[in-house]
Specification:
heterodimer, A: mainly beta, 7-stranded mixed β-sheet, 4-stranded antiparallel β-sheet, globular, B: mainly beta, 3-stranded antiparallel β-sheet, 0% helix
Chain lengths: 119, 111
């Protein structure tokens, strides 16, 4: 059974940093593209980061480029998101989402983790 | 402001048929990247419902179907059931933005 489990969320002050993790199981993690998608409270879904199976290429949405860094450790079957210079508008539920190479959709999602940026 | 445009809400009685529209342009839905749909039940993560216009992953009932015409797409739900009450999102890839994009979501209420 495919499972994606996010961790590392919480409350952080504006300008602060946080690192999210996504533990994968039930599939060959190293062969899949991985993404981060977020959902602000009461709002819709926003894709913002992608990493290929080899670790390159990496893509970011304009809203996070230069502040967030996506990475992966295939030996640990884990995806990471380093978030720096956090803003109030980064408050959201953060989901890791799997994508098969050659497709354009996200076939499995984690349960999500809440990040709250507030003073 | 989402790249793909969906109605904020739709509703229907049990057993009825409802459709949810998703409007885009030639950079996303009109491009050869397909359109995909997700169901988000209350307080849960999104789940893939339809991919590549009208393909259902294993376990998704055939009451759910999709279609596309030009730069717009639709999700149809027949035989509406109480458990279908959820938020539904369309998604595509936008070649101009070089980004995966979503619609703003449509809340389905089963009356």
């Amino acid at each position: 059974e495919v499972q994606l489990v996010e961790s590392g969320g919480g409350l952080v002050q504006p300008g602060g940093s946080l690192r999210l993790s996504c533990a994968a199981s039930g599939f060959t993690f190293s062969t899949y593209e991985m993404n981060w998608v977020r959902q602000a409270p009461g709002k819709g879904l926003e894709w913002f980061s992608f990493i290929s199976p080899s670790g390159s290429p990496i893509y970011y949405a304009d809203s996070v480029r230069g502040r967030f860094t996506i990475s992966r450790d295939d030996a640990k079957n884990s995806l990471y998101l380093q978030m720096n210079s956090l803003r109030v508008e980064d408050t959201a539920i953060y989901y890791c989402a799997r994508k098969t190479v050659g497709t354009v959709y996200f076939d499995y999602w984690g349960q999500g983790i809440l990040v709250t940026v507030s003073s | 402001q989402s790249v793909l445009t969906q109605p904020p809400s739709v509703s229907g009685a049990p057993g009825q048929r409802v459709t949810i529209s998703c409007a885009g342009n030639n950079s996303n839905i009109g491009a050869p990247y397909g359109v995909h749909w997700y169901q988000q039940l209350p307080r849960t993560a999104p789940k893939l419902l339809i991919h590549d216009i009208n393909n259902r992953p294993s376990g998704v009932p055939d009451r759910f179907s999709g279609s596309k015409s030009g730069t717009s797409a639709s999700l149809a739900i027949t035989g509406l059931r109480a458990e279908d009450e959820a938020d539904y999102y369309c998604q595509s890839y936008d070649i101009s933005l070089s980004a995966w994009v979503f619609g703003g979501g449509t809340k389905l209420t089963v009356l």
